[in-house]
Design brief:
The chain is α/β, with parallel strands linked by helices and about 260 residues long. It folds into 2 domains: about 200 residues, 2-enoyl-CoA Hydratase, Chain A, domain 1 (Alpha-Beta Complex), CATH 3.90.226; about 50 residues, Lyase 2-enoyl-coa Hydratase, Chain  A, domain 2, CATH 1.10.12. It has 11 helices and 9 strands. The strands form 2 sheets. A 6-stranded mixed beta sheet has the order 1-2-3-4-6-9, sandwiched between helices. Strands 5-7-8 form a 3-stranded mixed beta sheet. GO terms for molecular function: hydro-lyase activity.
Length: about 260
């Protein structure tokens, strides 16, 4: 046992940076890590001081996926594995449902459930040397749960290529597939991600929350229903104080002052 925290948190300028802190195991997602992440995302949902979340990894990698040593030690007991994958699913959905944008800051490898984390985040900035894979097929364990997030981020053929081969793909390929937004030199990763996070954090927190929820909800609807739903969202959004302030500020050629309502 150790007193070293599984997750580090640093808040600055409306941005909460969460750092997976199991560098000795490439930040693998133990059950303890998953539950700590879930508790943290639940707390962040109600934290008005935070407008954007950055998810990063300590040490040489972003995240290598599930902790296979922990899985082996548990002797693959069904009750344990059911709880583990349920916890993982809750974490990934907590990222999507969090009313604040989440940016993955990726370096090293992001594999299996680590790649799932990247795909679950709203945005991803990656170092030039980062690599991505869903390699479960190589050890007889198809990456079925990572497939859910991956297939919602990249084209079907790209997703199937990653899932069926298990091969590592480089950052340019991940960018071409649509898994990440930007590639930067390794030495610029922290500053580039922070610049993006602070820029987003300068927007109305209400507008960010409304927009993120609407984005994911409309994506699952048929076209006509999506337009009907988003039209209502816009009508409701126009009644918010921040929308009125933003329009007035634009017309007055001044910076808006957000109140979050």
């Amino acid at each position: 046992m150790t007193d070293t925290p599984l997750l580090l948190r640093q808040d600055e300028d409306g941005v909460a940076t969460l750092t997976l802190n199991r560098p000795q195991s490439r930040n693998s997602l133990s059950q303890g890590m998953l539950r700590t992440l879930l508790e943290t995302f639940e707390a962040l949902a109600d934290d008005a001081s935070v407008r954007v979340v950055v998810l990063a990894g300590a040490g040489p990698a972003f995240c290598a996926g599930h902790d296979l040593k922990e899985l082996r030690a548990a002797e693959y007991g069904r009750a344990y594995t059911e709880a583990l994958f349920a916890d993982c699913a809750r974490v990934m959905q907590a990222i999507v449902h969090l009313p604040k944008p989440v940016i993955a800051r990726v370096h090293g490898i992001a594999t299996a459930a680590g790649c799932q984390l990247v795909a679950s985040c709203d945005l991803a900035v990656a170092a030039e040397d980062s690599r991505f894979a869903t390699p479960g097929v190589n050890i007889g364990l198809f990456c079925s749960t990572p497939m859910v997030a991956l297939s919602r981020n990249v084209g079907h053929k790209a997703a199937m290529q990653m899932l069926l081969t298990g091969d590592l793909i480089d950052a340019p390929t991940a960018l071409r597939f649509g898994l990440i937004n930007e590639i930067v030199p390794a030495q610029d990763l922290v500053s580039a991600t922070r610049t993006l996070a602070v820029k987003i954090a300068s927007k109305s927190p209400l507008t960010l929350a409304v927009g993120k929820e609407a984005f994911y909800r409309q994506a699952e609807l048929p076209l006509a229903e999506a337009y009907a739903y988003t039209a209502k969202v816009m009508v409701d959004n126009l009644e918010a104080r921040d929308a009125r302030e933003g329009i007035d500020a634009f017309l007055d050629k001044r910076a808006p002052v957000w109140c979050g309502r």
